Amino acid sequence: MTKYKRILLKLSGESLMGNQSFGIDPERLADYARQIKEVHAMGIQIGIVIGGGNIFRGLSGTSKGFDRVKGDQMGMCATVINSLALSSALEASGVKTKVLTAIRMEPIGEFYSKWKAIEAMESGYICIFSAGTGSPYFTTDTGSSLRGIEIEADVMLKGTRVDGIYTADPEKDPTATKFDQITFDEIYARNLKVMDLTATTMCKENHLPIYVFNMDIVGNLKRVIDGEPIGTLVH
Length: 235
Ligand code: UDP
Fold this sequence. Notes:
This protein is α/β, with parallel strands linked by helices. It has one domain: Carbamate kinase (3-Layer(aba) Sandwich). 37% of the residues lie in helices and 17% in strands. It has helices at residues 26-40, 58-62, 68-92, 114-122, 140-150, 184-190, 197-205, 220-225, and strands spanning 6-11, 45-50, 97-101, 110-111, 126-130, 155-160, 181-182, 210-214, 232-234. Strands 4-3-5-2-1-6-8-9-7 form a nine-stranded mixed beta sheet, with helices on both faces. Helix 1 links the parallel strand 1 and strand 2. Helix 5 (140-150) runs parallel beside helix 7.
């Protein structure tokens, strides 16, 4: 028996860059696809939300003169590009996927609905939820909280490039220590930047636990599914 039956996996767009400074690193993409395929083969139902920060972020666009709403729409389109790339890599490895979009854009993807997603996951498809929430001023972290809650996932697995949540940023503060688990309230009290507050609060209010782990180490996704304590559980 595995720990989870249905998961929502959140991947950042930035991590898709690998060692590049922009865009999609095919090796990183293939690594992710292999890891996802591995846990799919264990019978886990998988929904994925992928960010767009490797291509465009609305907020950083405003400093360059972009209208915020148009910038956010560009960001949402960027998540669709990444979702198609991941879908393509997964399909190439023999896994069936469905790209669902929060904004209508057939034939690129089908328009999202909870029931379409659940039916597809139960039939063995991996669902990739693209275009975030479909609305500006949100992030893909909030998109993934929303989709995770809607599809009744057991957990949101937040794949990052650090191995969990620390008392301070471990890339800046060498004295930072890692939590094995932490409550939502403690995240607020310590002002920890795990996700934006909208995303965190949605998970708290709807009882969706979050597991933060390092997805850039090949095999880690399976370790999390196997219950190995390699990251930080937020509950
Ligand atoms: N975005 C949005 N609404 C959403 C999700 C995303 O407007 O519901 C836009 C926003 O501009 C954001 C960009 O898409 O900056 C890319 O998403 P995000 O920054 O979350 O990507 P990540 O940091 O995970 O790569």
